[in-house]
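Subject: Interface between my chains keeps coming out wrong

I've been trying for a while to get a sensible model of this assembly. When I model each chain on its own everything looks fine, but I need the whole thing in one frame so I can look at the contacts. Pasting all components below, labels as-is. Any help appreciated, I'm running out of ideas.
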Amino acid sequence: MKQEFTVTVYTENQIGLLNRIAIMFSRRKINIESLNTSPSEIEGIHRFTIVINELEDVVKKLVRQIEKQVEVLKAYYNTNDEIVWQELALYKVPTSVIAEKVKVERLLREYGARAVVIRTDYVVFETTGQRDEINKLISVLEPYGLIEFVRSARVAIIKASKGFHDKLKEFEKKEPGEDVIENEYLGKGGEVFTM
Amino acid sequence: MSTIEKAPAKGKTDKKPAVTNISGSVAVLEAFLAEGVDTIFGYPGGAIMPIYDALYDYQEKLHHILVRHEQGGIHAAQGYARSSGDVGVVFATSGPGATNLVTGLADAMIDSTPLVCITGQVFAHLLGTDAFQETDVINITTPVTKWNYQVTDATEIPSVLAKAFYIARSGRPGPVLIDITKNAQLQKFDYEGYTKCDHVRSYRPAPIVRKEYIAEAAKLINEAKKPFVIFGQGVILGKAEQEFIKFIEKAGIPTAWTIMGLSAIPSDHPLNVGMLGMHGNYGPNVLTNECDVLIAIGMRFDDRVTGRLDKYAKQAKVIHLDIDPAEVDKNVKATVPVWGDCKETLPLLTAQIEQKVYPQWLQKFKDMMKEEEDTCITPELNPTTDQLTMGEVIKTLNELTGGDAIIVTDVGQHQMVACRYAKFTQSKSNITSGGLGTMGFGLPAAIGAKVGAPKRTTVAIIGDGGFQMTLQELGTIMQSQIDVKILILNNQFLGMVRQWQQLFHDKRYSFVDIESPNFVQLAKAYNIDGNSISKREDLKKAVTDMLNSKGAYLLEVMVGKENNVFPMVPQGCSVAEIRLK
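Reply #2:
Try treating it as a single job with all components included. I did that and got this:
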């Protein structure tokens, strides 16, 4: 059965790499639900967080192909249970309505939202959370005249991860240790591609 | 530019520490010399003119072959790489020059052929302006290259080219394309010598060999009753032919090949039981579904080899040796994956297996070969029909070359017949477009194959359709005096498609009836001698004349129009359902 997977890819920071990775999904006619790419905690290393709906078997093969790319250091895939993930959302609402309805303030507190910009004509609220939490606040704000809404891509931390610093040091060696080699999961079955 | 690293100093090949001021173009050619390049296949144009200008002074050291079309250039480089075992090098200009490389890149990608292609590009300040002959070659070629990179600053050239050659030839080889803007070609910079690359931190050419899986694989092999070895080009690419032969000889296991693996072992090896796949031999296909341990070495279970996957070798435990981790479990689930370079893994495995023979099991292959001989092979090789068959032409060729020639084929019926019947005595002798199935590959690839192995007789076996796709390369043969023997097997049809239309589309021959020019006259126009025959009594002499001719020669053999290639695994059928007629 298809389910949501989060693919995490550590790469060199190079022009064209986004395309090289993106076409691996489109070639297999897999839609990317969400894509975040940003510098990782290590200088010069980028981290991609890609959300797709797929069969595990397909994802596993895809991740191996991604990892094969010359400028990819490491790729992982995880189910939602294995990660801590968040999205960030911005909501733009008319100030007049907000000011009149006291209820709104309570609502925003309930959803952990905070005001980013307050102007006479509109207010921009920000919240972080998971997809359904963010969606819920949209439906709540809609009656108050939600003008505009935007959400970010997912960012996710892999629960079992011990970070990438040590791994990178290994990659820089000519003879890396066993824990970073590609076949680290051989025979481990379920632990495939988890750190 | 964080990714272009300086390799460790020990890999240095240039002893002169002196700094010289050279252009980016000269740096490209210096890189070629340092990497041992001797031949470039190319075609000049506006955006690569500075490199061609520099080449003018390097003509003595770098042999440039002017092709007639960039596709011909890249196929020639592929042929060169395949016959020599080294990297093929191509020059093309920007825009149409670069886009003409795409078919060859795709072919080299799927057949793991090491290439370094240099394309010229418009000046960096013109990128994205729809300048004359500007095309986004990096994005066009991304899916069909192992690595590609655009250079806009000449100082990057030495390190980028070092990386290009390293990536192209290491691990599972593949094509690399470097796009160099014209300003970078012209730019002068302080050159500190060339340093070969031997490490890229984000790239592992080969996985580390796991001893425990070697032991598991050896155990499975030692316990097997009906083991079966199937192998592909990995054995050739890994230069592991000797290791492979030692392995099968100690194991005593019947061995079959994919068309990409063909010639890695001599055809007359007693354990060679033939060809796998759609038009492969009867025994290897049927017995794939009867063996108890299937040992796949350097092959990727292409659908043309496996037929219907859910009915493929389901009864067998599968041991898969491959250098590319992504190939293991991709199509066929491995019981024991043995990742690594087979040059390294095979000796480890050989050391742990017992010396064995399987006379009854091997006899089964022989019995099935007998059956195939009666129904398919004898009628093909010793026909009683009036018209010549492709098979008897190949048989005659075998008799006259003794199996020592390099056989380059195009794509279609003649390719399958050549792979089925051609005999080989040495490795790197069968050069064909396996994965992509590129019609038009044969003639230019034969040019490169001859240049890559100049002492060997090179025969290009091509159909009447495929020949007309790249026949402009006759001009290259003429000008560069390439001694290629061109053997056209003319059935006046696009034969393979016609065969499918006959078998699966009620003989509705839709646009497969292809007319050809007078090939012999055409060759004569290029100063290439030739002959055309259609009678059996002329065959031996005609092939002898071709092989004995000085320089290139074109022999057209008219063969039966509606002959089919059998056996055949129909699409969607299991290998066990292979049809003998």
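Reply #3:
Confirming on my end. The longest helix of chain A spans residues 56-68.
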